[in-house]
């Protein structure tokens, strides 16, 4: 589990999957996703590593946040060509109400909901993108030490939807 979490922080999606898959066997955990650190199951000493660690690693692969920063799909495993996740809370006092991606259709859509007023954030995607829209209107891309991103000021209780176009066409 710990390796999967580290790989997610290192933005290595393949490493996340390679670290999680060995744990996902019948002998690696109980049906409740608890482990006992004893493959013979003699001790019945329960551990929450698999239960919480799996979700933590997946969440870290799909969403990174820090004060004033959100990155969607920072460690997206190549096998996860399309998907969606709902209701992740970022460290920016912003709920990621919806994150949907489809690499075949070449797009990412993320809906943000701030719980505080005048919440300034930088939003970026971990996959190269060419154009971004905020609530359907094209917005300029900025670049600095954080990388290519969109800067926004979110207001409390308002949903903002950002689309990242992964196509190189204008």
UniProtKB/TrEMBL annotation:
<feature type="domain" description="Alpha fucosidase A-like C-terminal">
    <location>
        <begin position="65"/>
        <end position="114"/>
    </location>
</feature>
<dbReference type="InterPro" id="IPR049053">
    <property type="entry name" value="AFCA-like_C"/>
</dbReference>
<dbReference type="GO" id="GO:0004560">
    <property type="term" value="F:alpha-L-fucosidase activity"/>
</dbReference>
<dbReference type="InterPro" id="IPR013780">
    <property type="entry name" value="Glyco_hydro_b"/>
</dbReference>
<dbReference type="Pfam" id="PF21307">
    <property type="entry name" value="Glyco_hydro_95_C"/>
</dbReference>
<protein>
    <recommendedName>
        <fullName>Alpha fucosidase A-like C-terminal domain-containing protein</fullName>
    </recommendedName>
</protein>
